[in-house]
Amino acid sequence: MLKFSSMTGNEIRNKFLTYFERNGHKIVASSPLLPANDPTLLFTNAGMNQFKDVFLGNEKRDYKRAVTSQKCIRAGGKHNDLDEVGKTARHHTFFEMLGNFSFGDYFKEDAIKYAWEFLVDELKLEKSRLWFSVFEGDDEVGPDEEARDLWIKVGASPDRVLGFGRKVNFWQMGDTGPCGPCSEVHYYMGDDPLDPQKNRAEFVNGPGDTTMEIWNLVFMQYNRTQNEDGTFALTPLPAPSVDTGMGLERIAAVMQNVKTNYETDLIKPIVEYTASLAKVK
Ligand code: GLY
Q: 98 C-alpha vs ligand 1 centroid, how far in Å?
């Protein structure tokens, strides 16, 4: 039995925006789905897109912390969910991404503290259902032991913090642009989270939808650029920054205790209305 009261998608979005506003973030409107000035992207694929030049140090804003609920489409390019639609309970190419951002202000410690506090104290998720992933390092960038230690410091059990490679735990917007190691929060949606036979580590980034990623915290430290010979280079950003992304429909599925995003109040009415137009169930 899940132990929290159900919240609508609108209530969750509002709670996220106001929580971060209380913590010094400016609420910024979602940018359009077609990026205004970025030939590297066909569609907006993450909350950080509208802040790309701020991360790169090419643009200054009158705030150093922002929070958004960004409309995104992932249907091609580096982040492509198209092939997953119909196969999983959690991909639908168009979605809203809740994100908090720091432009050279706070970094890993506060990003992790805010994420824990929002999930555990504000949304009141059961700790026993939470898992965390950190970058285990490779030839280019070392392991993120700091993120592991910080999750444990805020209250995660050490056996719930797992290391993964570049595919999962190093985030970049596209082939070029701001990037860095990232750390994800995963949530077990099955019965009996205290049963180690059911709530298992191999389901984190593993098969099925019972344990799913709900939030990604990117520690923006680098810019990836392409050299004239076609190779890529990594250079440090002017200031380490934070970019996070939580799928609104995923956290709504968690809070509403339904098994797929399609059953949340954010999507179900659209499916029902379409079905009524088509006169099918
Ligand atoms: N920019 C963070 C994410 O898309 O996961």
A: 10
Ligand 1-lining residues (CB < 6 angstroms):
46, 48, 171, 216, 218, 243, 245
CATH number for domain 9-278, candidates 3.30.470.10, 3.30.930.10, 2.40.40.10, 3.30.830.10: 3.30.930.10
Per-residue DSSP letter, 118: I
Output the CA 273–ligand 1 centroid distance in Å. Answer: 31
Residue 171: half-sphere exposure toward Cβ, Cα within 13 Å: 23
| Alpha helices per DSSP H over the chain | 9-22, 52-55, 108-116, 145-154, 166-169, 248-255, 268-278
pLDDT tens over the chain, length 281 residues: 444 458 999 999 999 999 999 999 999 999 999 998 888 899 999 999 999 999 999 999 999 999 999 999 999 888 899 999 999 999 999 999 999 999 999 999 999 999 999 999 999 999 999 999 999 999 999 999 999 999 999 999 999 999 999 999 999 988 899 999 999 999 999 999 999 999 999 999 999 999 999 999 999 999 999 999 999 999 999 899 999 999 999 999 999 999 999 999 999 999 999 999 999 98
What's the pTM value of the predicted model, to 2 decimals? Answer: 0.94
Atom of ligand 1 nearest to the CA of 244: 2
